[in-house]
Amino acid sequence: MKLSLPDSDKTALLDQLGVANLAFQKTYPGDRPDRQPVHTVYGGANLFKADTCVRMGEIALRNLQTYAPNFVELARVLQLTGHEHLPTLEKDIHDLTAYLDKLPADQRRQQPAWLAYTVYNKMVQKLKAEAVEDFRIDFEDGFGNRPDAEEDVTAVQAAHEVARGMEQGTLSPFIGIRIKPFTEDLKARGVRTLDIFLTTLLEATGGKLPNNFVVMLPKVTIPEQMTTMVRFFELLEKANNLAPGTLKMETMVEATQIVMDDEGRNPLMRIIRASEGRCIAAHFGTYDYTASAGITAKYQTMAHPVCDFAHHMTKVALGGTGIFLSDGATNVMPIGPHRGDNLTFAQLRENQEAVHSGWRQAYHHTMHSLINGLYQGWDLNPAQLPMRYAATYNFFLSSYEGAVHRLKTFVDRAAISTLTGDIFDDAATGQGLLNFFLKALNCGAISAEDIVPTGLTIEEIETRSFYRILAGRRRKA
């Protein structure tokens, strides 16, 4: 076989390309396989207690069981697939539930009511076991501008409550604080609160932070605000004997200037780079962003088109970087207008209608986020938690069969490539397919055994990396 070019010439050129390829891969390593919470609950710092997340779960469960005491009622309110074929009489609902309860899992999956039944029961389990996945102790909008002395005291109290929660095991799996922004008028207050909170917490815990602790810096508009936070992190780590890089941060997309700067460029990547590897997530602030875009209060909702524009600009800017993205919050609380034990039938009816209306709005907002590739959002009230999981579980379970087929086909293709010695260069695509199952697994929508039909073993799934799965199969081959 004749060649025009000597190997030395080709090697020199390809080596140069290799440097650029590796630099690109370092910037865009792909989606992180780490667990991403499905939501973040924001709560005022003055209200936070060690058992806040536990109590929120109890309230959320009561809310669900009061206004949807069975899976048929929930399916009908949300119009889940097949709801029109479900029974209406209480006895028939009871009999259907008892029948489904007794069926083995594989046979139950073949029943028309499987999806609605499974979504409801997984919601109940989740609200009992881990209703809040992520909590942000809020010193910004959820706390407001108060006298310095009051915020100082609240920062100390919140730190002690976190320490108690660590000791009692009552904190959410992910937790952090939101400080005031690094705007000119609030930057000193934000730094002071962070210093007080961390110093008090570390003193109370003997130098330990909660698992998955993060600091949210809101209203970021320029890279210098991120850089300043990094420098303060370094000072705090040194002062408290924390390992360098321990403290992590998030940013917020809640001003038009973070989507488009004064030179007509999207500055998000420069803002993330300014964090020097410490920023792990970018959260969308629905109401500040819509206000920034000139939308009047009546129309400031997650469904407004300006939000979709910001979402897609953010995804385009940060896609493949491994930065977790989160949507914002629904501001309609599914809470009835009437309180008390001796309500009239009409008042009870009004409560039910208000709650169901709020549920539908929250459910559709969350489904819209999920369909657009935003797997996390905000919740502001425990009554919103049932719909967070209703939408999340419906999203994953209703897509399960198709996802199994796609990943199984891909795994089979990878196996052929491995056996023939070919270089299988689609690990990133495989990781994207695997991530669907990892996200579903993380939030309780499925179990590890539900992923086995894709052709992966439990051990392979536990690696959480399609690249490692391929490498392991190549070694065995």
Could you list some keywords that capture this structure?
alpha/beta, eight-stranded parallel sheet, 8% strand, globular
Summarize the structure.
The chain has 477 residues and is an alpha/beta fold. The protein is 54% helix and 8% strand.
How many helices in DSSP terms? 18
Instruction: Write out the strand line-up for the largest beta sheet, numbering strands in chain order.
Output: 7-6-5-4-3-2-1-8
How does the overall form come out from the CA principal axes? globular
Count of distinct strands: 8
Poorly predicted spans: 419-423
Q: Major sheet: size, sense and barrel closure?
A: 8 strands, parallel
Computed over alpha carbons, the radius of gyration is 25 Å
Strand content: 5-15%
The pLDDT mean sits at 93
Order of helices and strands: HEHHHHHEHEHEHEHEHHEHEHHHHH
Helix content: 40-55%
What class, by secondary structure content?
alpha/beta
Molecular structure report:
There is one protein chain. The protein is an alpha/beta fold and 477 residues long. The protein contains 18 helices and 8 strands. An 8-stranded parallel sheet has the order 7-6-5-4-3-2-1-8, covered by helices on one side. Helix 8 (187-205) links the parallel strand 3 and strand 4 (213-217). Helix 3 (71-78) crosses helix 6 and helix 14 crosses helix 16. The radius of gyration is 25 Å and the shape is globular. The two termini are 30 Å apart. The model is unreliable at 419-423 (pLDDT under 50).
